[in-house]
Write a structure and sequence with these properties.
By secondary structure, the chain is α/β, with parallel strands linked by helices. The chain is 38% helix and 23% strand. The chain contains seven helices and twelve strands. It starts with a strand and ends with a helix.
């Protein structure tokens, strides 16, 4: 199978300043935006804000840079997004406040990952999936399954050479509960509650039956996909979990690692890979 570099996020690597200094990484999701300050391979601090609230993003950057920055008034800000209209608004707000040098995946920066996606998949794959894949491979340095529990749940496969092979997209937990409520006459709108692992009985009332069903969808779906990917790869990859709802999988013996803010780590790792590639080109 031919492996190609992803160029769906067209753009040059950009003249990123030295990555030896701290930087601000921003991951804009459909519902929430995660803002973190990265130093080396460490996330010093991260906060969540509403994606539709650019002023809150700016406030978080000011706070994080004031507490953890290097004293420079001009932080490096690198932004990734699956919600481009919200990303435009956040970037405009940062520009109006002269908050630093903003670099954006899909315009200024490529995502430096090899893949086996179709041309259509290459054009539509979310930046979050690719960056989480880069972050996960940097953590384990071997084949892995990357599970991101957010508004949607993604379960992706990265092989032992760091090549992204795609994966599966499931409804997120909130989405499952929302659809059951909206598309039926009597099912209530619930928030997730972890079932008692010692109670193996069927759900005795509607809310418990819904909780049990959603829990089964998440755990069962991931296990089914993990077995499928293992057969495809002829080996059992590690499973790395991230995302705002990753606590749902706590206690599942299938999971090897929980990594909060995996996409932020992927942003930092991608920037480092681009900087190294630029240095190699200059030496040539």
């Amino acid at each position: 199978m031919t492996h190609e570099f992803n160029d769906s996020t067209a753009g040059v690597s950009g003249e990123l300043p030295s990555l030896t200094r701290p930087m601000i990484a921003i991951a804009i999701g459909n519902t929430r935006t995660r803002v973190g300050i990265m130093s080396g391979r460490e996330c010093l601090k991260a906060q969540s804000v509403r994606s539709e609230a650019p002023e809150e993003v700016a406030q978080q950057i000011t706070s994080l840079w004031g507490d953890y920055g290097d004293g420079s008034p001009d932080p490096v800000i690198v932004l990734a997004s699956v919600a481009h209209s919200r990303a435009d608004l956040i970037e405009r707000t940062l520009g109006q406040k002269s908050m630093g040098s903003v670099y954006r995946f899909g315009r200024d920066l490529q995502i430096p990952i090899r893949h086996t996606l179709t041309p259509s998949g290459e054009k539509t794959v979310g930046q979050d999936r690719l960056l989480c894949a880069i972050g996960a491979f940097q953590v384990v340095q071997q084949a892995c399954i990357v599970v991101d529990l957010g508004t949607a749940i993604t379960v992706d496969f990265v092989d032992g050479e760091g090549v992204f092979h795609g994966g599966a997209i499931l409804p997120g937990i909130g989405m499952m509960f929302g659809v059951m409520h909206e598309k039926t006459a009597h099912l209530p709108l619930l928030k997730y509650e972890k079932p008692d692992p010692s109670d193996l009985s069927p759900g005795k009332q509607t809310d418990l039956a819904m909780q049990l069903g959603v829990n089964a969808c998440v755990h069962g779906g991931i296990r089914w996909l993990a077995e499928r990917y293992a057969e495809f790869y002829d080996g059992y990859p590690q499973i790395i979990v991230t995302g705002g709802d990753m606590g749902v999988l706590e206690g599942d013996d299938l999971i090897e690692a929980f990594v909060p803010d995996l996409q932020l780590h992927g942003i930092r790792a991608a920037c480092g890979m681009l900087a190294e590639a630029d240095e190699a080109d200059e030496e040539l």
